[in-house]
Amino acid sequence: MKFFVDTADIAEIRELAALGLLDGVTTNPTLIAKSGRPIKDVIKEICATVEGPVSAEVAATDYDGMMREAAPLAAIATNVTIKVPLTIDGIKACRALSKDGHKVNVTLCFSATQALLAAKAGATFISPFVGRLDDIGLDGMELIREIRQIYDNYDHLKTEILAASIRSNLHVKQAAMAGADVATIPPAILKGLFNHPLTDKGLASFLADWKKTGQSIT
Ligand code: G3P
Q1: Which residue lies with its CA nearest to atom 5 of ligand 1?
Q2: Residue at 37 is within a domain
Q3: Lower CB density within 10 Å: C or N end of the chain?
Q4: Does residue 161 lie within any of the structural domains?
């Protein structure tokens, strides 16, 4: 499973990219607003930092507006993925943009049939929002399993499942178990994947014993 980071914070992205485990980045209007910076500047900097796909979301809600916004976003760098909402106009824009050779991420997916529409429209990625479904008492991960099953039924559907709205270490594990192609993970959760109290405890004990030997490896 590929790891994308879900943030527009360039310092966080640089730190995670340095680990060599980052396959891409997703942003959305909320994350851009949180960065306090102009979208084109942020996306340009992210694209120069990370080789993989970088999702930049349109703000227009009509087809013509989305197409007008997609052009300058796509011109920022070759690794820009245009993110469109899962609406009728968004799906229409997805079809047109993917026909033009652009990578497209269809976002705000909350049902398996929406995911089917995105795949039929040639989306590169579909973004089912796991956490937001959990928030309203539904099983977000079940949606990932349903989409996996549907896409696997049809060889011609090439869309990658990008598990979004990931809120925990458990979500990352379950997304991988469900066969998501990608998980887009907030920085704090991604960093938290390294941690386990037994790792810390075990290392402290190894180091204490090693010290007693008085040895040096170098
Ligand atoms: O980027 C889309 C998605 O990951 C947002 O997550 O936590 O705001 O529901 P969240």
Answers
A1: 165
A2: yes
A3: C
A4: yes
